[in-house]
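Need Integral membrane protein's 3D structure for a figure. Predict it.
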Amino acid sequence: MVDWFGSTVVATGRLPLFCFFVAFVAGFLLIRMSVRMIRAGVRWWPGDLRPGGLHIHHVVFGVGLMMVGGVAALVVPDRQGVPIAVAAALFGLGSALVLDEFALILHLRDVYWTEKGRASVDAVFVAVALTGLLLTGLRPFGWGWLHSAGSGGWETGIQAGLLALALVNLAGSVVSLLKGKIWTGLTGVFLPAISIVAAVRLAVPGSPWARWRYPDGSAKLDQAIRRDLRVRRPLIKAKIRVQELIAGRHDLEPPADPGAGRGAGDPSVLSRTG
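Structure prediction for Integral membrane protein:
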C-alpha cells in the first residue's frame, strides 16, 4: 500500500491534490454530521455558535481556512513535502465548509434545510467528482496540446487541428451547461464527445437555453418537458435519495426573503445572513 501510494500519488506530483481531496470529503462529512446532530437536538453535542445572538455560520470558518491554506501554498517552496500537504488539506477543509453553505451565499438567506439548500449538496458533489477525476490523472481534453503550444512544440497542422477539436469540445460543454445538463457538461470537459452529444439534444425545461430558444407552447418545449418527466426526473429522485442519506432531508419551508424590494447589494440584506 505504501509503495502504491508513493508511486501513484507522491511520485506523480499529486500529493497536494490528494490531501485536498481527503480533507474536503472528510470536512463535508463531519460538518454534515454536526449539523444533523444539532438539528436532532442532541443535548451533548455542541450547538450553533451565537455570541451576542449573532449566528456565525461555518462558511466563516471555511473562508478563514481557505485563506490560510491558500496563502501557505503560495509561499511553500517544496511542492512535495509535508508543508504543502498541510496547506492543501487546510484549503480542502475550508472549501468543504464554504461549499456546504453555497446556497446561503447564492441566496443571501439561510436556506440550509429547505429545497433551495440542495444547491449546497449539489455543489459539493460536483467538486468531489471533478477533483476525483483530476486525482486519477485525467486532464481536460486538449490540455496536453495546449501545453505543447506553450512550449513551442507545434510543428504540424495536425496539432492545430487537434486544438480546434478541443475547442469544439469545450464549446459543447458550455452549451450543455446552458441547456441545464450540469453533469454531462462537466464530464465532457474531460471525456470528448459526451458534451457534444448533450449539446445537440434538447435542453432541460427551465434552463437558460430553453428560456431563450423554446417559446411557450412550442413543439420543442413540449418535447423537452415530456423527456424531462420520462428520463431526468426519475434520475433526480434517485440522486436526492442518495444525497439525503448523506446530508439529511431538506424539507423545511424557505424563510421570508429579507431582500424583497431592495437591491441585492444593500448592506442591511447582507448583515442578516449571519
